[in-house]
């Protein structure tokens, strides 16, 4: 079972690839929604308002992926797909890559464009901090205060990540569990007397 994914931690530095007087500026951004992607695109269109094309690809999701590619006026599949190919090649998600082109007066042909957009995307990814993360399941533990000790023992023994808690007469603890361990941890708490465990929908 694959329970990890890779993403970038922050926006990449600007990179530049040149071919026959055309300039291709490459950028990579961490995103979680299409709205975030659109926001970055608007900023780049304002920054590079004299450019000819703002081509991009993004992918969102940890297991079920959504993606979009855009050639932005370049010949079909000469820009967006080569950029997306690099997202797949580097095995990253929750990411937007934009390549901004300033036309240099010489046509590059489809092959030249594919190479330029692919290379600028690759350069942006090579300059990014790519981090591997685990895919986690979130569980809520509900119990009365006297059961606190045995609940904490299980949490400590299994080195579980507590992400939130409400400790009053009736207690709630939210834990994040790596997907491959989720069933085992669920069973441990499910078999603990007077402790209720439920999985939070992702």
From TrEMBL:
Signal peptide: none annotated. Coiled coil: none annotated. Gene3D superfamilies: Impact, N-terminal domain (3.30.230.30). GO terms for cellular component: cytoplasm. It comes from Christiangramia sediminis. Belongs to the IMPACT family. This is YigZ family protein. Residues 20-125 form the Impact N-terminal domain. GO terms for biological process: regulation of translational initiation.
């Amino acid at each position: 079972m694959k329970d990890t994914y890779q993403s970038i931690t922050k926006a990449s530095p600007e990179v530049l690839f040149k071919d026959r007087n055309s300039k291709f500026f490459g950028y990579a951004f961490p995103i979680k929604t299409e709205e975030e992607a659109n926001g970055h695109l608007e900023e780049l269109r304002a920054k590079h308002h004299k450019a000819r094309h703002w081509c991009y690809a993004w992918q969102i999701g940890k297991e079920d992926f959504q993606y979009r590619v855009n050639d932005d006026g370049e010949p079909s599949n000469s820009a967006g797909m080569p950029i997306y190919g690099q997202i797949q090649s580097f095995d990253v998600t929750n990411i937007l890559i934009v390549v901004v082109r300033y036309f240099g007066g010489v046509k590059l042909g489809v092959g030249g464009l594919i190479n330029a957009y692919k290379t600028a995307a690759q350069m942006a990814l090579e300059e990014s901090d790519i981090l591997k993360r685990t895919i986690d399941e979130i569980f809520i533990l509900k119990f009365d205060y006297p059961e606190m000790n045995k609940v904490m023992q299980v949490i400590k023994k299994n080195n579980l990540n507590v992400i939130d808690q409400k400790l009053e007469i009736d207690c709630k603890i939210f834990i994040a569990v790596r997907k491959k361990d989720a069933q085992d941890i669920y069973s441990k708490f499910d078999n603990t007397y007077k402790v209720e465990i439920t999985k939070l929908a992702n």
